[in-house]
């Protein structure tokens, strides 16, 4: 056995990072869900209100509209329209319409038409916005999907950090130390540069259960190899639940042996090299 007897001391930075980072990511996911719900609900409510006014309203006269379009990411178009119209009583009204679309955008080829509510002449609907209903719905769906995926991603990362902390704390208190065999190492490229490697491993728990899996490590923080050739990795396994397995990093994370213990571990690995 290379690591000190149980219980092992958890690395303080690891503890702080995981007990604060995990809940923080969950809160970010919740915030993304709330923001997405607020934005999509607001856009959907505006579209529904404009459709209702268009269906029940009366036509305005002397309509004048000026539209400014800003395009983002090539396919999302934000429209800001300044509108002026006259109601049946000859009163002039001014207003603004903001709406965004996916794909289609205002091209200036159609005349602007306004309908307003007879009982509330300041509430109106613009033909350009109503005609773009399908493209607006597509954008609402896209935004909702994006926020859902963001919520799921942040939530998954947060839960992963909390589960990793719970596993490390459990194994620090009680675990079996084994050496798993490296069966394959896959480089992971980021913008064409090799920054991480995924280690595929196989091993056997003290109970005889076959274990296998994979884990990614940064190049500057490789796993703690049980031999200097890099063919086996030090792992801890829960004796009651072998599915709880943790590969130890070369800097001993998530644990924090004393300097003397670290020196003893590295000396033992060096002896295995020559033995």
Task: Name a few traits of the molecule.
alpha+beta, 2 domains, five-stranded antiparallel beta sheet, three-stranded antiparallel beta sheet
Overall pLDDT confidence: 94
* Helix-strand string: HEEEEEEHHEEEEEH
Label the structural class: alpha+beta
Share of β-strand residues: 25-35%
Quickly count the helices.
4
Helix content percent band:
25-40%
Query: How many whole angstroms does the radius of gyration measure?
Result: 31 Å
Instruction: Sum up the overall morphology in one term.
Output: rod-shaped
User: How many β-strands, per DSSP?
Assistant: 11
User: How far apart are the first and last residues' alpha carbons, in Å?
Assistant: 16 Å
Q: Strands of the biggest beta sheet: in what spatial order?
A: 9-8-7-10-11
Tell me the number of structural domains.
2
Query: Which residues form runs of ≥5 with pLDDT under 50?
Result: none
Mind summarizing the main beta sheet?
5 strands, antiparallel
What does this structure look like?
The structure is a single chain. With 275 residues, the protein is an alpha+beta fold. It folds into two domains: 1-166; 175-274, no CATH class. It is 39% helix and 33% strand. The chain has four helices and eleven strands; from the N terminus they run αββββββααβββββα. It has helices at 12-56, 127-131, 133-173, 259-274, and strands at residues 58-59, 61-72, 76-86, 92-102, 114-117, 120-126, 176-190, 193-204, 210-218, 232-237, 245-247. Strand 5 and strand 6 (120-126) form a beta hairpin. Helix 1 runs antiparallel to helix 3. The chain is rod-shaped and about 95 Å long. The model has no long low-confidence stretch (mean pLDDT 94).
């Amino acid at each position: 056995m290379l690591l000190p007897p149980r219980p092992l001391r958890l690395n303080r930075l690891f503890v702080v990072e995981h007990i604060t980072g995990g809940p923080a990511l969950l809160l970010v996911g919740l915030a993304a869900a709330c923001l997405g719900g607020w934005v999509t609900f607001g856009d959907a409510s505006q579209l529904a209100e404009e459709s209702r006014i268009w269906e029940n309203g009366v036509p305005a006269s002397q309509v004048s509209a000026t539209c400014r379009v800003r395009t983002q990411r090539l396919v999302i178009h934000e429209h800001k329209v300044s509108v002026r119209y006259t109601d049946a009583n000859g009163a002039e009204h001014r207003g603004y319409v903001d709406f965004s679309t996916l794909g289609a955008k205002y091209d200036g080829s159609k005349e602007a038409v306004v309908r307003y509510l007879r009982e509330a002449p300041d509430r109106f609907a613009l033909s350009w916005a109503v005609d773009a209903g399908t493209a607006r719905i597509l954008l609402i769906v896209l935004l909702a999907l994006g926020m859902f995926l963001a919520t799921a991603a942040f939530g998954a990362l947060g839960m992963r950090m909390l589960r990793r902390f719970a596993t490390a704390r459990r194994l620090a208190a009680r675990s079996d130390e084994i050496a798993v065999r490296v069966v394959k190492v896959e480089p992971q490229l980021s913008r064409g540069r090799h920054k991480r490697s995924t280690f595929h491993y196989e091993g056997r728990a003290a109970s005889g259960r076959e274990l296998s899996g994979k884990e990614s490590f940064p190049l500057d923080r490789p796993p703690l190899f049980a031999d200097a050739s890099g063919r086996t990795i030090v792992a801890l396994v829960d004796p009651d639940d072998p599915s709880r397995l943790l590969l130890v990093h070369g800097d001993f994370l998530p644990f924090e042996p004393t300097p003397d213990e670290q020196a003893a571990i590295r000396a033992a690995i060096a002896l295995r090299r020559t033995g």
